[in-house]
């Protein structure tokens, strides 16, 4: 008996001290025990949950049928495993990998359920970001090849048209048609150059490291852009700048970076037809490994552009860096601005991320390696 008691105490100590998250319910699903790791993951204390059912963790992400299948399986005495999107005590959402094991008495009747769970939120985020990077790389290769070939054809068309124009009389139908061809060809030439920039073919080497990278004073760059942007803003939009006075230099191509910033600022403007505010902030930041997807640990310069506009819908936000994706009306956008920005920032060994909430606004974060 003494040996059995010692074993029970050792097992309880092990469950209490393990990093794995456990909780135990009776056959009706009422929580009887939860270990400290459970408290750390969910934010609930044991006193909060003992005597209650796991319904308190529901996030609303799963339909009733989902839980019915789970409980039907468990009531048959079979283990159940799967992924759940649950809510912590503070309201934040997380995804867990859950395995529920029925515990039966000597007669084979289920008396308890032991739930073992693991937070996989970060893993899923990294997996999504990795897939996004791979998709963007593939799109970049395809877009670059198409743009390169198309640009060669446009060069021939533009050159030939200019030669023919020299021998064409003024104020004739032929000249008007040729001038139209030349104008449209040059416009499409700009489009192909944007595609080439997205593919990082202009200034990038085979490893994706931008050949045009220089030392950039980001505060000075933003100061140069502000007057230009102000002229495009209505009186109902406030532009605020919060520079870090001790900001270190960044490694990037200044002209291309200027284009990236202007593009994001113009998108912010377009998201606020009824007015609002845009805030530009610069700061030094030290990142640890894995803090921002695929960025190495080290010193970075963070540029944040925030707006109080309409925000980006959840079903759209995963696509905004894809080439030719746009929510603007036909003729108002090519869908290449943000995809080009993504490619350029990646080529500097940096990262661009976005957080957005519909009806509240968006925050674009640009991480650039410190020089």
What can be said about this structure in brief?
The protein has 371 residues and is an alpha+beta fold.
Description:
It is a single chain. This protein has 371 residues and is of the alpha+beta class. It folds into three domains: 2-119, Beta-Lactamase (2-Layer Sandwich); 121-202; 206-371, Heat Shock Protein 90 (2-Layer Sandwich), CATH 3.30.565. The protein has helices at 2-17, 36-42, 46-49, 64-75, 121-166, 173-198, 218-230, 254-270, 314-317, 337-347; strands spanning 21-26, 31-34, 80-87, 93-104, 110-119, 214-216, 237-242, 250-252, 276-287, 298-307, 351-357, 361-369. A five-stranded antiparallel β-sheet has the order 2-1-5-4-3, with helices on both faces. A five-stranded mixed β-sheet has the order 7-9-10-12-11. The radius of gyration is 29 Å and the shape is elongated. It starts with a helix and ends with a strand. Residues 201-209 have low confidence and may be disordered.
List keywords for this structure.
371 residues; Beta-Lactamase; Heat Shock Protein 90; five-stranded antiparallel β-sheet; five-stranded mixed β-sheet; 12 strands
CATH topology of the largest domain: Heat Shock Protein 90
Helix content: 40-55%
Please state the average pLDDT score.
84
- How many structurally independent domains? 3
Strand content: 15-25%
What is the gyration radius calculated from CA atoms? Answer: 29 Å
| CATH C-level category of the largest domain | Alpha Beta
Distance between the termini: 68 Å
Query: Shape from CA axes?
Result: elongated
- What's the tally of helices? 10
Main sheet makeup: 5 strands, antiparallel
Structural class: alpha+beta
Order of helices and strands: HEEHHHEEEHHEHEEHEEHHEE
**What is the number of beta strands?**
12
Q: Walk across the major sheet and give the strand order.
A: 2-1-5-4-3
Kindly report the name of the CATH homologous superfamily of the largest domain. Histidine kinase-like ATPase, C-terminal domain
CATH architecture of the largest domain: 2-Layer Sandwich
Low-confidence stretches: 201-209
């Amino acid at each position: 008996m003494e040996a059995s008691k010692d074993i029970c105490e050792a097992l309880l100590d092990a469950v209490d001290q393990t990093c794995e998250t456990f909780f135990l319910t009776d056959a009706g699903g009422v929580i009887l025990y939860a270990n400290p790791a459970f408290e750390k993951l969910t934010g609930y204390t044991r006193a909060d949950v003992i005597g209650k059912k796991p319904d308190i963790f529901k996030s609303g992400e799963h339909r009733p049928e989902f839980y019915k299948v789970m409980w039907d399986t468990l009531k048959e005495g079979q283990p159940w495993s799967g992924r759940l999107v649950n809510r912590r005590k503070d309201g934040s959402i997380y995804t867990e990998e859950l395995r529920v094991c029925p515990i039966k008495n000597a007669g084979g009747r289920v008396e308890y359920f032991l739930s073992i769970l693991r937070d996989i939120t970060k893993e899923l985020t990294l997996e999504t970001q990795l897939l996004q990077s791979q998709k963007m790389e593939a799109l970049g290769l395809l877009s670059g090849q198409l743009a390169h070939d198309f640009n060669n054809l446009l060069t021939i068309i533009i050159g030939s048209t200019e030669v023919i124009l020299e021998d064409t009389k003024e104020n004739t139908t032929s000249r008007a048609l040729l001038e139209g061809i030349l104008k449209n060809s040059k416009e499409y030439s700009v489009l192909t150059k944007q595609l080439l920039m997205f593919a990082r073919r202009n200034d990038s080497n085979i490893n994706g490291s931008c050949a045009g990278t220089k030392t950039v004073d980001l505060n000075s760059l933003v100061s140069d852009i502000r007057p230009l942007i102000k002229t495009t803003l209505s009186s109902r939009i406030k532009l605020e700048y919060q520079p870090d006075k001790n900001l270190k230099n960044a490694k990037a191509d200044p002209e291309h970076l200027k284009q990236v910033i202007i593009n994001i600022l113009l998108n912010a403007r377009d998201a606020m037809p009824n007015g609002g505010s845009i805030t530009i902030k610069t700061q030094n930041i030290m990142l640890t490994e894995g803090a921002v997807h695929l960025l190495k640990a080290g010193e970075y310069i963070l540029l944040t552009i925030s707006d109080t506009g309409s925000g980006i819908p959840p079903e759209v936000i995963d696509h905004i860096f894809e080439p030719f994706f746009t929510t603007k009306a036909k003729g108002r956008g090519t869908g290449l601005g943000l995809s080009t920005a993504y490619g350029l920032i990646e080529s500097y060994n940096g990262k661009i991320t976005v957080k957005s909430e519909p009806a509240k606004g968006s925050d674009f974060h640009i991480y650039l390696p410190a020089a």
